[in-house]
Amino acid sequence: MGKKSIWAAVLIAVCALAGIFLLYQNENEPEKKEPVQIAVSFCDTANSRTTAIWQDVLDSIQRAEMSVEWRSADADADKQKKDVRELLEYSPEYLVVMPVQTRGLEEELLQAEAAKTKIILLDRTIDNFKNISVLAEVRTDAVWEGEECARLLADFFDGREGAVLEISGENGSSINKMHSTGFRNRLRDYENLEIAGITEGGGDRGTARNNVLSYFLSSPGTVNAVFANTDEEGIGAIDALEELGLRGEVPVVSINGVKDVKNAIGAGGYLGCVEAVPYLGETLMEVIQKDQTKTRQDDENILRGTVYTAENLSQMQGY
Amino acid sequence: MKKKSIRDKLLKNFSLFSLIPVIIFCIVMLLYIASNVQGKRKDSVCSDLEHQATQLDKVLLQAYQIGQTVAEDEMVNQELAGSFKSERQRYESEIRLNSQLLGISRYFDENIKVYIVGENGGVYKNSPYSLEEKEYEREAWYEQIKESGEPSWFELHSMSYFVKTEEKEFISLGIPVSEEKTGRILGCVMVEIGVFDILHTAETQEEQGNLYLFYPDTNIKIIDGQVELYDNDRVTLIQKDGIAGHEQVEAEQPEILETAKFLTYWKKDFQEKGFGQVARFVTAYQQLNANDWILAYSMPKVEYYRLLISVLIVSVLVTVILILIAYSVSCRVSGSITRPILSLKEDVEKVQEGNFEIVVSCESEDEIGELAQQFNEMVTEIRNLMDRIQTEHERQRHYELLLLQAQINPHFLYNTLDSLMWLIRMENHADAEKMLEALTRFFKTGLNKGREIVSVKQEISNVESYLTIQLMRYKKKLSFSIAMDEEIRDFKVPKLILQPLVENAVYHGLKGKEQGGSIAVDCRKRDGVIVLCVSDDGLGMDEEQRKQIQKQLSEGIVEESESYGLTNVNERLKFFFGDSCTMSVESAQNEGTKVWIEIREEEVYVQNRDS
User: Fold this and answer.
1) Helix and strand totals (H; E) in chain B
2) Are A51 and B166 in contact (CB under 8 A)?
3) Chain-chain contact of A268 with B88 (C-beta, under 8 angstroms)
4) I need a surface site. Which of A141, B183, B552, B608 has the fewest CB within 10 A?
C-alpha cells in the first residue's frame, strides 16, 4: 500500500467520523420549528373559566384559519417562562400571553419584542410594561367586576351591618388584584360594610373550602358574608357553609359565572355572581386582524359581563 | 525467489505487533460495549415501563377503592334514592353531595375525579369543570354499568365523559350504586382517572416506540395453533399526539394487533418475563394488578438496536482508523529504519563501482547513524590511502627517473670519460684501466640488474667505485677511507643512498677547498642501530644552513636545491624503512660535514618480516 493510499484511507475515515459527529450534533440540535402565526401561553386550564378561554381562543384562531402553537403553564410562573421561550422558537407573528403572575415574564417578553413578535395580553395584565411594547390587552373589566360584587352585598344588607370575609384569589394574578381593588373601592361607599377577614383561596374550590371552614371554626360569628375572587372559591365557600350549616345565612358573591355557580344560586345561599366573560377569542382575533390591516385600534379591549342573581338566573348560561 | 527486504519484514512484524493488539482491543471493547449498551437499553426500556405500570396500577387501585367507598356511602345512597320535586331540590342535593365529594378529594390523587349519576336526574362531581349538558343516564357507558351490575373498567378514552377539559386520556371505572334492601339500581359512580402524565413521560416522548394498553379477555382462544384476538380483546395505541382506538389500530397498524395477540399468550411464548420479541418488534410489557390489563411498549427492532448499531458503526470506524494509523505508523517506523540502510546500501554500491567521493548523509543518531559515519570515515580513509599510494607511486617513478638521471649523470660521465681520454692520451694505461674498471663497477652496482634493494656491501662497493673515479680525477685534493662492520654487510638498503652523500661531500665539501680533504664512509652497528656515516673535512656550512637542511630532513621536505641529494636519500629511506630510520647532519664552517643515517635494526626486521 502506497503512502498516498494510506493517507487517502485516513482522510476517508476522518471524513466518515466527522460525518457521524455532525449527524450526532444534528440529532442533538433542537429541531427547527415550523413558524406559526400565533403562539398562545395560557396560565392554566384547571377550571371552567380558564378552560372556556382556552377553548374559545383556539376555536377562534381555527376559524380564522391561522396557525397556532400553545402551551398551558398549569398556574406555574416558572413553567410559563419556559413555555414562552419554547413558543418563541416557532417565530410567531403574535404572542398571546395570559400571565400567571403580574411579574416575572419581562425577560421573555423582551426577547419576543427583540424577535419582532407582537405581544397581546389576554385576560390578565402585567406590571411595569413601560419598556415592553404591547400591541393590545384583551380582558374583562376586573375592577368593575369587584365593584359589582360590593354592590351586590350592599343591596343584600341594605344598610344592615355586614362583615365580609374576602377569599383572596390566585396569588400574584392581576385579575384578582383588580377584583380586590374594585371591591374595596366600592365597599368604602357603604359604611355598614367592612372586610372582617381575608383568607386564601388559591383559585380552587378545595383550598377555599378548607380555609373558609377553618376561618369560621376559629372565628365564629365574626363574618356574615363572603366575597370570593373567583367562582371556584365561591363554590368552595358554599360547600364549607353547607358543612357548617350556614348556607343561606351567609351570602356568597363571586366573579366569573360558571355553571356550578348558577346551580348554587338556584339552590340558595349563593347571592350572586358577576360574569367575567371568557369568550375573548373573537376580540382577540379582531385585534390581530386590525393589526394585519393596519387599522387603528385601542390599546385596551375591555369586556363587561352581566351580574347574575336568583332574579335573573334563567338568563344565565354559565360555562 | 524474490528477495524479502528488511522493510517488508519490519513492516510485517510491526503490523503484526501493532495491529493484532489494536484489533483484539477493539473487538473486546466492542463486545463489552455492545453487551453493556444493549443490557442498559433493555433495562431502561423495562424499568421505564415498569415505573409507568406501577404508577398506573397505583392510581387505578386507588380509583377502585374510592369508587367502591363512594358507591357504598350512605349519604350517596340517600341522595340517589330521593326524587326531586323542583330544580332547587336537585341543586340543593348536588350542593350537599358535591361538598362531601370535595371534602374527600384531598385524600386522593388529583388526577382522580369522581362523578355520580343518579336515576333521579342528579349529577354530582368533585371536578372544578362544569358538567356538559346531556342526559347521562342515557349514555352507553351508563347503560353498560347498569346492565352488568358489576364494576366495569372502560378502556382508555381521549375525552372526559362528563366535562370539557384540556386534559386528554382517561381511564374510567364505573360502579353501580344499588339500594341495599331492594337491589334496585339507583345510579352509578364513575371514577375518571386522568392518565396522560403517567403514559406520556419524558422517556416515552423521546423514544420511537409505541405504548399501548391491551385489554385481554379472560378466555384465550386458540384456533389452529393461532392465538385469536377476541372481539372483546381490544387494544388502544398511545401515541404522542393522542390515542388510537382498536378499530384504528386494526386498520392502520395491524402489527401492533399481532403483538397484542402474542401478549395474550405471553406466559408460553416469551421466555423472559416482561420482555420479548415478536416478529420485527421488541416488546416490554407489564400486567396491571388493578384490572389485568397489559401495558406494553413495543418498538421496531431497528429502533431498539439503533444505539447499538450506532456504537457498532462508530467502533468499527474507530477500529479502522486505529488500524490505518497503526499501519501508517508501522510504515513510517519501518521506513525510518530502512531508509538510511537503503541509502547506505546504494552508497556502498557506488563505492563498489569506484566512486569514493560519496558521503552518506544520515541524520539519525542511532547505530545506523554511527554505521554511516564509520562508513564515511572508511571511505575517506580508503580515498586518502589511495591518494597516498598514487602519490607514492608517482614519487617512486619520479625517484626512479632521478636515479636513472643520476646513474647517467652526463657531467659525471663526461668528466670521467674526459679523464679517461687524457689518461689514454698520456698513455697512462694503468690508471685508465683502473678508472674504466671503477666506472664499469659503478654502473654495474648502480644498475644492480634493475633491483632496487642492495646489501650494504654492494652499496659500499658502488661508493668505492665512485670515489676511486673521483680520486683519480682529483688526486691531490681527495683522499677517502671506507670502513664497514662485517656484521652488517648483508643488511639490505635501497640502492644509491650513500653515493649522493659522497657526491655532496666531493662537490660541496672538498671541491671548493684549495688544499683538498678527505672523505670517510663508516658503516657500523651500535646498540642494535645500524649507523651509516659519510663525513668530510671540507668547507662545511654555517649553522643556519645546517638547521635548514636538518629541518627539511625532519619534515620530509624534498626541494630542488643544493640539498636535493640529501632530502632525496632521506625520502627514499623513509619510504623504505619508515620511522625506524633517521637522518641527521652535523656541520661546522671550515671544519667539515657529517651525515648520519641511523636505522634501528629490530624494527626493520619486524617491518621486513611483515612485508
Assistant:
1) 19, 20
2) yes
3) yes
4) B183
Q: Of the ranges A250-254, B43-47, B89-93, B489-493, which is most confident?
A: A250-254
Q: What residues are paired with B192 via a beta bridge?
A: B113, B172
Q: Looking at the partner chain, which of A6, A209, A318 has a beta carbon nearest the beta carbon of B324?
A: A6
Q: Is B84 on the interface with A (CB under 8 A)?
A: no
Nearest CB to B106 within list A17, A45, A206: A206
Contact A10 B96 (CB under 8 A): no
DSSP state, residue B408: T
Short-list B447, B497, B515, CA closest to B599: B497
Which residue of chain A has the CA closest to B307? A24
Instruction: Using an 8 Å CB-CB cutoff, list chain B residues near A266.
Output: 87-88, 91
The secondary structure of residue A32, as a DSSP letter, is P
Query: Which candidate from A16, A239, A268 shows the least CB-CB separation from B99?
Result: A239
Answer for the pair B59, B195: CB distance below 8 angstroms, yes or no: yes
Q: What is the pLDDT of residue A276?
A: 96
Residue keyed to cell 386494526: B250
Domain A38-141+278-303 in CATH 3.40.50.2300? The answer is yes
Work out the angle at residue B81's Cα, subtended by the Cα atoms of residues B76 and B83, and round it to the nearest 5 degrees: 120
Q: Phi then psi for B344, rounded to 5 degrees?
A: -60, -45
Q: What is the C-alpha separation between B96 and B114, in angstroms, rounded?
A: 15
In the predicted structure, residue B508 carries a pLDDT above the cut 90: no
Domains of chain B: 72-195 (3.30.450.20), 207-304 (no CATH), 408-610 (3.30.565.10)
**A160 band by pLDDT with thresholds 50, 70 and 90:** very high
Work out the pLDDT band at A264, boundaries 50, 70, 90.
Answer: very high
Which of the four pLDDT bands, split at 50, 70 and 90, describes residue B417?
confident
Record: contact B328-A204, CB cut-off 8 A: no
Alpha helices in B408-455 (DSSP H): 410-425, 429-447
What would the grid cell of residue B275 be? Answer: 420482555
Q: Residue B609 pLDDT more than 50?
A: no
C-alpha torsion sign, points A43, A49, A54, A58:
negative
Q: Which of residues 63-92 of A touch B (CB under 8 A)?
A: 72
Specify the domain boundaries for CATH 3.40.50.2300 within chain A.
38-141+278-303, 143-277+308-315
Amino acid identity of residue A28, one-letter, is N
Grid coordinates in use for B539?
A: 668547507
CA–centroid distance for B2 within its chain: 28
Span B153-182, average pLDDT: 91
Nearest to A198 by CA among A232, A233, A174, A173: A233
Task: Return the number of other C-beta atoms located less than 10 Å from residue B209's C-beta.
Answer: 19
Mean pLDDT of chain A: 91
A contacts of B114 (beta carbons < 8 Å): none
| DSSP letters spanning A191-253 | TTEEEEEEE--TTSHHHHHHHHHHHHHHSTTS-SEEEESSHHHHHHHHHHHHHHT-TTTS-EE
Task: Give the pLDDT confidence of B155-169 residue by residue, as tens digits.
Answer: 999 999 999 888 889
Average pLDDT for B127-141 = 91
B12 touches chain A (CB under 8 A): no
Beta carbons of A94 and A117 less than 8 angstroms apart? yes
Q: Are A10 and B164 within 8 A, CB to CB?
A: no
ipTM of the complex: 0.87
Contact call for residues B607 and B580 (beta carbons, < 8 A): yes
Give the mean pLDDT of B392-417: 69
Average pLDDT, chain B: 84
C-alpha Rg value of chain B to the nearest Å: 65
* Overall CATH class of domain A143-277+308-315: alpha beta
Rounded CA-CA distance B169/B155 in Å is: 10
Q: Which of B90, B166, B207, B331 to mutate to test the interface with A (most CBs of A within 10 A)?
A: B166
